[in-house]
## 1
Amino acid sequence: MSDYKSILSASCPMPKLDFEIITMGHGSGGLLTHKLLDAGVFDVLSNEYLDKQHDGAVFDVTPGKMAFTTDSYVVSPIFFPGGNIGELAINGTVNDLCMCGAKAAFISLSFIIEEGLRVSDFWEILLHIKQAADHAGVKIVTGDTKVVERGKGDKIFINTSGVGKVHPEAAISVDRIKTGDKVIISNDIARHGIAIMSVREGLEFESDIESDTCHFNHIVEQLLEGFGNGIHFLRDATRGGLSTILNEVSQSLSKGIAIHQKDITVDESVAGACELLGLDPLYVANEGVFVAFVEASIADQVVQKLKSWENGLHAAVIGEVADQHPGQVVLHSQIGGRRVVNMLVGEQLPRIC
């Protein structure tokens, strides 16, 4: 990824402009808007759809089910260890489609920029957007740019929508989860939330903690190709963390979920930061981790497939669905105890996506 970023930066140097910051005029739709977009946005994100510079995109779709999603990104700070708001926006939109059993294909991209944002920061965000889109294999086909007055935004907000074709073998629905299904986590947890918190609060730890932001476009396709409707449900563990996702499922089904602490990996530095801050990693946000509910008979194979993925080294079966304690998630601790893991109350970490 870093090598790709270097190549991209070299091939797409920031253009020489007669302005260094974004002004209200850049959102007017007039000359300054065109200068901003023509100075590199269209060139960096160029494809056969965006090049038409129309208000929308027209494309062919093959027969079958399509998935559609939309999201807005207001993360603060806009640059954080391991990524920035641009990369996050693309990955997050791709992943929402993946959790529907779809492969993301086309994305719309809209900026709401606060007057005063440095053009160099906007360019850095743009390059990360290009990098993330290329790695996920998606095309940005339309978009919009608006500018708000200084003090009425927070540097930059990004809105996206995405569409993708649902895999023919996908049957992703919470209603398909049944007693005995295994619960799988795709990687270690809590890195994104702690990375954001470290920058916001000016905290320093013994080792750098980077966001886990990444896309699932290829790995979910491979899982569906290999295991089809044996995969009952998928959900990314973003806001509210792992505990919130499990509680939502448990309450929706009126079934119990048992999880095992020994099987849930938390990076040593992340665990130390959580202990210092008084946070439970189960409630801390992720941006590159998803939960899968699968047939018990294929669980080990699914984990092995995830472990072959660069972002799934710590994938594991962490629990199972049970008839006992309906509507509750129960954690079996490493020392042999048990406790109920409730849903997150309030907002533990601000502005993580």
## 2
Amino acid sequence: MRRALALSVGLLLGLLLAPVQPAQGQAGARQPDLVVARGSAQLDGTRITGRVVVVNLRGPQARAADRSVVRLTAVRSGRAVVLGSLAVRRLAAGRSASVRVDVSTARLRPGKYAVRACADGGQRLRERSERNNCRVLARITVAGSSGGSLCGTAMCAPLDVARGTEVPYTDASGSYWVYVPDNGSDEPYGVLIWLHGCGGDHGDIWGAADYWGYHYIAIVPDGAEGGCWSMSTGPDRVLATVDSLRAHFDIDPHRVVLGGYSSGGDLAYRTAFLHAERFAGVLAMNTSPFRDNGTTVADAARASWRFPIFHLLHTDDETYPKAGVDAELDDLDDLGFPVTRQELPGTHWDEPTDPGDPTDGTWHDFQEVLVKGHMDDGWVSP
């Protein structure tokens, strides 16, 4: 009897002290789960073509997946080279999307590669599992790279790129990721050169892209992938981007807008002050005109013209506090720059309240308020 009682007490204590296990799916309640269900790719000259099917898996805690991208990489000896990112529409749980693959091999050296597709490239969505996103589509052998030479006159080396998706290319001035809208217009394009913040990369092009029918090319230059922009070499990199666009695409050189977030905004301001004749205006977000880029009010005063500026700031930005930013924007006002400023609640970087349906957060403000709101303002340089 005493032994039985001891056993009972032991079992009871074990149950009371045992860690409580969460219910199935509780920790990842109502999250999407994107996978590359199937796909194929083949080498076609200097391009890789094929198709990828992305599925948002059904499950008891499944929810819709917001718009995302499939990132294509070529893997060799453990090193992955990004080929491009393909847009995927919003997917309800259990639904799939078929995405056409058409990317350049310009960034690949000769050799053998595995072509890999990863759903939710850049992991911008919070998923039930992050371990099932990728699939190898094919193995290819690249005979040689196809980077073109940069020439000096308009449209001297035209590039016929896939429309409505991110396309990487390389020329003598460097590597780029470009989005050319598919809107049917034959008019010369405007341009948005977008410069990401510290730790960002070319994936920001999906926020800068022209989904709105404004007829502009969005382009992201290399030079700071995963890092911060150099204020000493950065302006030359931006000017090379303009020259590259002029050589390869039918652009209007008087409608080139510079945009940037944080470190990218620092570089956008610096480049525009020092080379104002090349740009139609500046779109800046969570940055400051002078503080971190080595320029002064005197540099802005020497600018060849007073280009328009739209500056978006978050009121609780701890990296670029509002008081300092306001003082520097006041300096630009005093110099006669047409400055429009907008304040929104938030810190330097905020995730959306609802990742499945983002109506707030830094990425939303970047795309909807900064780019969509002002790339159709009609800015033109002299």
